[in-house]
Amino acid sequence: MKKIVVFSLVFFLFFLAVSSQKQPNTEFVWNKFKKKFNKVYDPLEESKRFAIFQDNVKYIKKHNNNPSHGFKLGINQFSDLTNEEYQQKYLYKHQNDEKKYLKQEKVYDEKNLKFSPESLDLRDEGMVTPVQDMGQCEGCWSFAIIAAIEGCIAKETDQLIKLSEQELIDCDYDPKNGQKGCDSGSTYKGMDWIIDNNGVTTSKNYPYIGYTNNCGGTDDPISTITGYHQVHPSEMFVKAALFYQGPLLCTVDAHTRKFQQYKSGIYRDKSCSSDSTELNHSMTIVGYGSGTNFSTDNDFDFSSDKYWIVKNSWGTSFGEDGYIYMSRGDNNCGILTEVYYPSGCSLV
What we know:
Blueprint: H1 2-22, H2 26-36, H3 43-64, E1 71-73, H4 83-90, E2 104-105, H5 110-113, E3 120-121, H6 140-157, H7 165-171, H8 187-196, E4 223-224, E5 227-231, H9 235-244, E6 248-252, H10 257-260, E7 262-267, E8 281-290, E9 306-311, E10 323-327, E11 339-343, E12 346-347
Parallel strand pairs: 2-5, 7-10
Antiparallel strand pairs: 1-7, 3-8, 4-12, 5-11, 6-8, 6-11, 8-9, 9-10
């Protein structure tokens, strides 16, 4: 009996030792996370955030251990937030009246569509400015608009000029019309403001501060547009619009935990929605491609996968240096549901 007890104790201690070796040093990773993202908490809050962080790390590891997913998750600035908190702080409620104002346009006739190349990356064409971090401002609508106009101006003038998101956030502030600055806004209403106010200035003249402020009233617009169009929600037409017009505004359903922690690979998520009433985060499509020209640190096989290259506004710690590669061919998360491009772009 004594030998059995001793053996059981030895086995138990061995099990603890092996288990401890298998457990990741989450406290070490937690401290690195806090340092990287300048996170500071009071003692009670830190205990809560650490527990959430541990749960997110566990979720990330479980996802990444399943190669059938085809994309990886990773620790980013949202890893100390529950999914509910992430949605509340970084996503916005879609304005359901969006489609009352625009008709979808098949902008190109069929014969022109065949000239769209097999792959396209407008970053290589000098039409995309560096990724920014909008912080805790839900101003993604303004970042998507500005990125599209910057690309359109570059295509027309060969000049890539950094324009001001902050001017749009401050000066197109009209809560009764749904324009709430850092608390959400509409992409097409933002473009209406730019048209009505004869343009937008540079970020140098009107720098980004990350919260809604009084309109600076700049009298120095540098670029403008005369209109905008909604692209027919078809891969064929969106590819053509990218090739002929430049970067495109899109709005997706980004509410899922997988989107929150996306790191790399071609993102495909059946748990998100493509319905226009469920869209909640605006970004900018800047290209497309297929697995044969996809470069990533993933170990997955992308030889048959197609994707959109999408610029986000959550800094370079999100995704692949600030970009997310979203699957092409299935309107994944509504990426084709509401796509726009500005037209008549020019320098003032």
